[in-house]
């Protein structure tokens, strides 16, 4: 009997043990409560100096090491974070000091600019946006996160969410382009890719939505320049990707360099506190951009260091990157009652919250073996190649010059970007190595080993020299086709890289003209971080591929597209202007009271330039042809649109050509008459689909109040009754159109 009971009890016990081992993790709200309790306990023990230490971030060495000065500060609890320190071994060394030698053993948070890859480098963000594929973009971010976290990095200063309508601004390369909807989709994808569902995992990092806000509206496209944006444009154009990031759970924000309507973004209570914390309920922390707290003095809103520190802290900037004014002056500011201890406590609380959420109190060290397994592994390289190929946009392909025949006997590969490892990586290279890069020259050799490749750089990217032209022309005359790799150097876009001309720099256009004159079929492969004014090329060369800066696998990915192993399906995430004089030129502009008419002088246009773009937003061709037909709405009239009400929009998309290919079907709306003027078109949905030859699919999009609404005259978000146009097509100009009526109450 006893043994029977035992038999009965034992499995029950085992069951309990198993249950306790597998019981669901603490609920979300329990976890939050635990974290808040741990923060309170810690805060209660902290001195003011230790609190200020948590608010300080300093820069390490360019090679990823920390500076000797950091050691002492970490020991004393006067440094909470570094940027640029990376690598499992180096981060562990410094972390050990924080945990073994500082009084409170608060781990450091290691930040780094992991923008489009850590070691495996993906296309620059504008290129990734050209995929119109949030899954691909999310995958790129998740690989970057896994590599970075394995290398001891907890925190990436990405995604960059600045909407930009001025391609002179070099940082247009780092964002998702001109459109708030596309920008929001990409924001969500990147935040989820970096952070996953829980950024304490050993393959995730916490993301940073930057640069808050309107940095991309820099006057004249000159980096760091003033911005002056109405609240309506902030809410409709510049805020949405940031709000999408908050909705996706982003852990941190970075306050921008620019001043905004007279108040610098790093001292802006309206954006940092009223909107971000109070309206959007963001509970992570805000880091300043590099010395942007100190720059409040040059902006002219602070007379000296103490004033700058008080302005930034009181507005809601929690952590100070590189300048040290919080540490120097917070004590005296508190005494003078210009700053409250609660403000400091709240900033510390937000930073500790993210540190707890990262799990670094419990798992502070990086795993060096994991680092070796993860960094630049085969799966990551394969993904980089695929994503790079998906980012390529076919701008022109007359007479089906592309794809090239793999049996071609000889190719002249000409141009200063054909074999440049450095430029292929783009402007943010993370820990990427030039030695890892497959250039276009190498990619072609790998793709068609039997073909003779006659390579000549022809000229430099910039400069006036043309002594390489003769060799380039010889290569062209000895070859069956010419591939011209031209564009910008990587450092012509990105931070502090504004240009006043969007032409191809140096003698490159002359080189193209000379080569084109040989009469050989010519394919232009562009590498650049922004739209370029390529009117001559668009008018005179038969084929153009926009490849951005495609990363470690650039050459393989471009070769995949050149030879048709990948059929290009990317679309432009921004407008290509014809000339700098047209800027800002973007598809979602207002109509004006006098929209342009060719035969009416007194309409909105130029005397000396077309008003239309060279290539519109959303544009891109394929080696096959698609037909989009049969646009239908689930209803043409509705009484009102509330909550989750949806109007379904459907179209047929058919591959009418002979190759499998991708089309990005795009949904736009226009509110025809409203209480405030509305854009002529607004993107509200898109789907990238792959279709076999002859295959036809019916696609459905939902329109909700969120998509049809806008900020009315009283600055309330609302859907107003009246007529809407609903448009669907393959780019922002070639669109089918239907009418939707929201009835007046
Ligand atoms: C300045 C840049 O504006 C920002 O994007 C970057 O994250 C920081 N420097 C840190 O490198």
Write the layout of secondary structure elements.
Layout lengths: L1 H21 L5 H18 L2 H7 L1 E4 L8 H8 L5 E3 L4 H14 L7 E4 L12 H5 L4 H17 L4 E2 L23 H16 L12 E5 L18 H8 L1 H8 L4 E4 L3 E2 L2 E2 L4 H11 L5 E4 L6 H5 L5 H11 L4 E2 L3 H11 L5 H17 L10 H7 L3 H14 L1 E5 L12 E5 L6 H4 L15 H8 L4 E5 L12 H9 L3 E7 L20 H9 L5 E6 L7 H6 L2 E4 L7 H9 L63 E8 L3 E2 L8 E9 L5 E11 L10 E10 L4 E8 L1 H4 L1 E2 L5 E2 L3 E8 L5 E8 L3
Parallel strand pairs: 1-2, 1-10, 2-3, 3-4, 5-6, 6-9, 12-13, 12-14, 14-15, 15-16, 18-26
Antiparallel strand pairs: 7-8, 11-16, 17-19, 19-22, 20-21, 20-25, 23-24, 25-26
Helix pairs in contact: 2-15, 3-14, 4-5, 7-8, 7-16, 7-17, 8-10, 13-14, 17-23, 19-23
How would you summarize what this structure contains?
The chain is α/β, with parallel strands linked by helices and 745 residues long.
């Amino acid at each position: 009997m006893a043994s029977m009971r035992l038999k009965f009890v034992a499995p029950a016990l085992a069951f309990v043990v198993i249950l306790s081992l597998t019981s669901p993790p603490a609920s979300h709200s329990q976890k939050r409560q635990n974290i808040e309790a741990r923060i309170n306990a810690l805060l209660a023990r902290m001195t003011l100096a230790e609190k200020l230490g948590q608010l300080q971030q300093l820069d390490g060495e360019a090679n990823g090491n920390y500076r000797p000065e950091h050691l002492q500060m970490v020991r004393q609890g006067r440094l909470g974070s570094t940027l640029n320190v990376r690598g499992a071994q180096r981060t562990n060394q410094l972390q050990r000091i924080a945990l073994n030698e500082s009084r409170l053993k608060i781990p450091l948070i290691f930040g780094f600019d992991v923008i489009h890859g850590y070691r495996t480098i993906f296309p620059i963000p504008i290129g990734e946006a050209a995929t119109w594929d949030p899954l691909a973009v999310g995958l790129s971010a998740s690989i970057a996160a896994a590599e970075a976290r394995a290398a001891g990095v907890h925190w990436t200063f990405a995604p960059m969410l600045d909407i930009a309508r001025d391609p002179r601004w070099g940082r247009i390369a780092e964002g998702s382009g001109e459109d708030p909807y596309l920008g929001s989709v990409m924001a969500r994808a990147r935040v989820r890719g970096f952070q996953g569902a829980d950024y304490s995992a050993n393959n995730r990092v916490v993301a940073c939505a930057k640069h808050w806000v309107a940095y991309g509206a820099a006057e004249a496209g000159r980096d760091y320049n003033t911005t002056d944006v109405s609240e309506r444009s902030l809410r409709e154009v510049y805020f949405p990707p940031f709000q999408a990031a908050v909705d996706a759970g982003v852990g941190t924000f970075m306050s921008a360099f620019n001043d905004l309507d007279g108040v610098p973004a790093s001292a802006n209570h309206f954006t940092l506190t009223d909107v971000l914390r109070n309206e959007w309920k963001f509970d992570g922390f805000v880091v300043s951009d590099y010395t942007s707290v100190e720059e409040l003095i040059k902006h002219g809103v602070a007379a000296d260091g103490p004033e700058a520190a008080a302005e930034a802290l009181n507005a809601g900037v929690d952590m100070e990157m590189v300048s040290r004014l919080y540490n120097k002056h917070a004590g005296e500011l508190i005494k003078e009652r210009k700053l409250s201890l609660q403000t400091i406590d709240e900033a510390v609380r937000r930073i500790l919250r993210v540190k707890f959420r990262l799990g670094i109190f419990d798992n502070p060290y990086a795993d060096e073996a994991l680092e070796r397994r993860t960094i630049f592994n085969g799966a990551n390289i394969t993904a980089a190649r695929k994503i790079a190929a998906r980012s390529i946009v076919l701008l022109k392909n007359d007479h089906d010059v592309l794809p090239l025949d793999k049996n071609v006997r000889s190719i002249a590969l000409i141009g200063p970007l054909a074999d440049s490892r450095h430029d292929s990586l783009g402007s943010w290279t993370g820990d990427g190595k030039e030695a890892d890069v497959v250039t276009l020259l190498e990619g072609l050799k790998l793709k068609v080993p039997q073909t003779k490749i006659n390579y000549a750089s022809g000229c430099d990217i910039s400069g006036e020299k043309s002594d390489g032209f003769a060799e380039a022309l010889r290569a062209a005359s000895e070859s069956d086709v010419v591939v011209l790799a031209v564009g910008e150097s990587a450092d012509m876009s990105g931070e502090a890289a504004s240009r006043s001309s969007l032409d191809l720099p140096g003698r490159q256009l002359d080189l193209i003209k000379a080569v084109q004159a040989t009469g050989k079929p010519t394919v232009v492969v562009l590498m650049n971080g922004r739209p370029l004014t390529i009117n001559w090329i668009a008018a005179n060369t038969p084929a153009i591929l926009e490849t951005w800066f495609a990363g470690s696998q650039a050459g393989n990915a471009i070769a995949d597209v050149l030879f048709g192993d990948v059929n290009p399906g990317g679309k432009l995430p921004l407008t290509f202007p014809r000339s700098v004089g047209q800027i800002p030129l973007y598809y979602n502009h207002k109509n004006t009271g006098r929209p342009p008419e060719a035969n009416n002088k007194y309409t909105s246009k130029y005397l000396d330039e077309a008003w239309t773009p060279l290539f519109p937003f959303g544009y891109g061709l394929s080696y096959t042809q698609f037909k989009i037909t049969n646009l239908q709405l689930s209803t043409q009239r509705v009484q009102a649109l509330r909550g989750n009400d949806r109007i379904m929009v459907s179209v047929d998309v058919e591959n009418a050509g002979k190759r499998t290919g991708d089309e990005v079907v795009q949904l736009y709306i226009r509110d025809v008459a409203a209480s405030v003027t509305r854009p002529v078109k607004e993107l509200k949905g898109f789907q990238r689909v792959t279709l076999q030859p002859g295959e036809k699919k019916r696609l459905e999009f939902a329109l909700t109040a969120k998509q049809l609404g806008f900020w009315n005259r009283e600055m309330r978000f609302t859907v107003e009754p009246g007529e809407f146009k609903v448009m669907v097509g393959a780019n922002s100009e070639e669109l089918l159109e239907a009418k939707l009526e929201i009835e007046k109450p």
